[in-house]
Amino acid sequence: MTAIVKYPVALASVFLWLGFVGAISFMEAWLKFRAPGVTLSLGLGIGRLVFDALNKVEWVLAFAVLANLIFAKARFFSLKNLFYFIPLLLLIFQSIWVLPALDARAELIIQGQELASSYLHFYYVGMEIVKVVCLFVFGIKLLDLKNIRRKR
Q1: Which residues contact 131 (CB under 8 A, 6 or more apart)?
Q2: Rounded CA separation 6/147 (Å)
Q3: CA dist., res. 97 & res. 104, Å (int)
Q4: pLDDT per residue over 81-119, tens digit each?
Q5: 5 with 139: CB under 8 angstroms?
Q6: Do residues 58 and 17 make contact, with C-beta atoms less than 8 angstroms apart?
Q7: What are the TM regions of this chain, as residue ranges (predicted)?
């Protein structure tokens, strides 16, 4: 007996997306500042590069999921897909507003300017937490037995 997954690209992409966000946002982001010799400016410079790359990878994976849902003729307005569209909307918001604002702040700090504290980083982390939870739920829902056909 062979199982055929209805959304194979979406399934793989969702868990890759989840892994990238988890590894970068919740591990690399703060660990780099603990490495010997990493100054605030150096850490911010590395972070800018890494988060720019992460954002591009997220877009590729988000489009892969969307393409698979379209190709498989999924019902777009379902509870299951809500757990995809929330991270997609957060990704749009992060790409248009949050990441450019964080990037601008990092650049000013790298140039030696002192800035007032900001909650922007906390907003970003909050969005990442929501994104991770939604992607996990969406991935589990893609694994639901109704989305797997048995082939004998």
Answers
A1: 21, 86, 87, 90, 91
A2: 5
A3: 11
A4: 899 999 999 999 999 999 999 999 999 999 999 989 899
A5: no
A6: yes
A7: 6-26, 57-74, 81-102, 122-143
Structure tokens belonging to residue 74? 């999924």
Residue 78's φ and ψ, nearest 5 degrees, are -125, 160
Single-letter code of the amino acid located at 134: C
- Tell me, letter by letter, the H, E, C secondary structure of the chain: CEEEECCHHHHHHHHHHHHHHHHHHHHHHHHHHHCCCCCHHHHHHHHHHHHHHHHHHHHHHHHHHHHHHHHCCCCCCCHHHHHHHHHHHHHHHHHHHHHHHHHHHHHHHHCCCCCCCCCHHHHHHHHHHHHHHHHHHHHHHHCCHHHEEEEC
Contacts 24+ apart (CB under 8 A), 21-29: 21/54, 21/58, 21/128, 21/131, 21/132, 21/135, 22/132, 24/50, 24/51, 24/54, 25/54, 25/125, 25/128, 26/128, 26/132
Q: In this structure, which amino acid lies at residue 41?
A: S
Bigger pLDDT: 2 or 128? 128
Tell me which residue has tokens 């299951």.
Answer: 80
Residue reference for tokens 């797997």: 148
